[in-house]
Amino acid sequence: MLTTGLRENAEHYSTAELHEQLDYLGESTQQLSELLQNLLQWALSQTKSLAINTQTLDLSELLKRNIQLIQSAVQNKNIQVNMSTDTQLYAHADLATIDLVFRNLLANAVKFTHPDGAIHIYGSYDEQFVKVSIHDTGIGMSTHEQKMLFDITKDPSKIGHSPNKGSGLGLILCHEFIKKNQGMIHVDSAPDKGSVFTISLPKSNQAA
């Protein structure tokens, strides 16, 4: 265990090495926390105990709130985050599930984007839907890998070539929750060209 090694050998580490080990411990703890949250939400969705309470949501405000949550990770990797919407993005959807969708998609964008890279967020309307696209400049994926993303039976360790991989459950939850909100999710990606995840949710009557 990392904590045991730190406790038993702390006097042998330099200050820089201690900081490196503590950073690694912090990342591992965050990943574990995210996994546990996703597992709980997945269990609720499968037992039909998850309530979907649709209302008018301003997706712009929800995105801004979630962008604030990733600021520490963004700053550590010197990633630029740009959000471009001409108007407020009003959707008819459930707050809790869509909040988790944005949290997972933004966390993944940071995780797989190279240091000094960028994340671009776009919002728009069409006749039926409000759309949000999250575009990262990360490692990207092949067409074959994209087909595995939302399949619970596939091994996520075979997707991409980054050493910083998670369980894959977060994206499966995103797919599940967006469907429960009568929406859609689409990915467009290529190896070393980054990825664009676009979600479409029913447009609120309050939308422009």
Give the helix proportion (percent range).
40-55%
Q: How many domains would you count in the coordinates? A: 2
Rg to the nearest angstrom?
Answer: 18 Å
Termini separation: 54 Å
- Binned strand content: 15-25%
Q: How is the CATH topology of the largest domain named?
A: Heat Shock Protein 90
Sheet with the most strands: spatial strand order: 2-4-5-7-6
CATH homologous superfamily placement of the largest domain: Histidine kinase-like ATPase, C-terminal domain
CATH top level of the largest domain? Alpha Beta
Stretches with pLDDT under 50, minimum 5 residues: none
Globular, elongated, flat, extended or rod-shaped: what is the shape?
Answer: globular
The run of helices and strands is HHEHHEEHEEHHEE
The biggest sheet, with number of strands, parallel, antiparallel or mixed sense and barrel status, is:
5 strands, mixed
